[in-house]
Amino acid sequence: MPSNVTVIVLAAGGGTRMRSKTMKVLHQVGGRSMIGHVLKAVGAVEPERVVAVVGHQRERVGAHIQELLPDVVLAVQEEQQGTGHAVRVAVEALPDLGSGTVIVATGDTPLLEGESLRAFAAEHEAAERAVSVLTAVVADPFGYGRVVRDGDGDVEAIVEEKDASADQREIAEINSGILAFDASFLVEALPRIGNDNAKGEYYLTDMVQLARDAGLTVGAHAIDDPWQTEGANDREELALLGRELNRRIVSRWMRAGVTVMDPATTWIDADVVLAQDVTILPGTQLLGATVVAEDAVIGPDCTLKDCEIGAGARVVRTHGELAVIGDEATVGPFSYLRPGTRLGKGGKIGGFVETKNADIGEGAKVPHLSYVGDAEIGEGTNIGAGTIFANYDGVAKHRTTIGKHARTASNNTFVAPVEVGDGAATGAGTVVRRDVPPGALAVSAGPQRNLPGWAQSRRPGTAQAAAAEAASREAEVTSHEDDPELG
Ligand code: UD1
Ligand code: CA
Question: Residue 84 CA to chain centroid, in angstroms?
Answer without folding.
Answer: 32
